[in-house]
From TrEMBL:
Keywords attached to this entry: Cytoplasm, Lipid biosynthesis, Lipid metabolism, NAD, NADP, Nucleotide-binding, Oxidoreductase, Phospholipid biosynthesis, Phospholipid metabolism
Species per Swiss-Prot/TrEMBL record: Paenibacillus arenilitoris
Gene Ontology CC terms: cytosol
Name this protein carries in UniProt: Glycerol-3-phosphate dehydrogenase [NAD(P)+]
Catalytic machinery residues: 199 (proton acceptor)
Domain Glycerol-3-phosphate dehydrogenase NAD-dependent C-terminal: 188-329
This enzyme's EC code(s): 1.1.1.94
Domain of life from the UniProt record: Bacteria
Residues binding substrate: 114, 263-264
Entry function: Catalyzes the reduction of the glycolytic intermediate dihydroxyacetone phosphate (DHAP) to sn-glycerol 3-phosphate (G3P), the key precursor for phospholipid synthesis.
GO molecular function: glycerol-3-phosphate dehydrogenase [NAD(P)+] activity; NAD binding
Binding site for NADPH: 19-20, 40, 114, 148, 263, 287, 289
Source lineage: Bacteria, Bacillati, Bacillota, Bacilli, Bacillales
Residue ranges annotated for the Glycerol-3-phosphate dehydrogenase NAD-dependent N-terminal domain, each copy included: 13-168
InterPro entries tied to this protein: 6-PGluconate_DH-like_C_sf, 6PGD_dom2, G3P_DH_NAD-dep, G3P_DH_NAD-dep_C, G3P_DH_NAD-dep_N, NAD(P)-bd_dom_sf, TonB_box_CS
Amino acid sequence: MSNQHQSTDKRAAVLVAGSWGTALASVLAANGYKVMLWTRSEDQAKGIRETGENGRFLPGVKLPENIHAVTDLKEALGGAELALFVAPSGAMREVARQAAPYLSPDTLVVHATKGFETDTLKRMTTVLSEELGRSADELVVLSGPSHAEEVIRKLPTTVVVASANIRAAEQAQDALMNTDFRVYTNPDVVGVEVAGAIKNIIALGAGLSDGLQFGDNAKAALLTRGLAEIGRLGAAMGANPLTFAGLAGVGDLVVTSTSKHSRNWRAGSMLADGTPLDEVLSRMGMVVEGVKTTRAAHELAKRYEVEMPITAQLYEVLFAGKAPRTAVEHLMGRLRTHEIEELV
């Protein structure tokens, strides 16, 4: 690491120290930021400080020296030019509420969490806006095909940052972009957030299909029809359909539905052999966003009166005890329909 990076006075805060938060902290560190990586666990912070690794989530990868693990939010956020929220969707409101008193009005706020708040069905920018007392238009969302395990190893990755405020999006782009981590901007916050959330459901279905050994044809159909579900719900919520053909849409859907790194794909493949959901989640040891998102999307489909058959069948598997094989058979046996019906 160059001395130039060590002597920086640029500061960023990353909340929390999961695998994705840690990977994004490493991107900011490579770009010369002093990064305060916040965790509520003193044991985790101590482990990172003593070993230079996030042993729980990304074992075997040394972190840059300009990443500092802390448990004090005031320390984490003091002087930060950028605050990057990467809490799981279920914890985002609480983390934002705790962070709010220490956040400077000048700090750029970005989030990189894919999911909805289950009880309220709100997107993460809405949750952050409410808790931080900021206009949602000022906030930035980061999404796209990006496994933490690859980003931390500096493998080529391309993502999108979306904001209604193009200057805010460009600030985030400037902070994060480097030769390994390419960043595009997009004004469609709703589309980027909906795509990032719903693709986790389709990835669960892809894992289920692979676990049942249904083959590549079935998975290709599942991803394609899954993209149609993302597009239908997104359009009903006000998104730009073009977003779903981009990195946040088809890009993220493909990587999450086909990779061994994908928690959602792994969870789906475990469900296929009859492992109960509670046991799957216990064995994973990490948040599987697609499970909660299935419940939220099932409600959103009713609210916006859109057809989401894959989501509906996965909801039955996860929460109503339906056999995975039966669910896939029901999907394949649905009444005939036109492929482009939802876009006309």
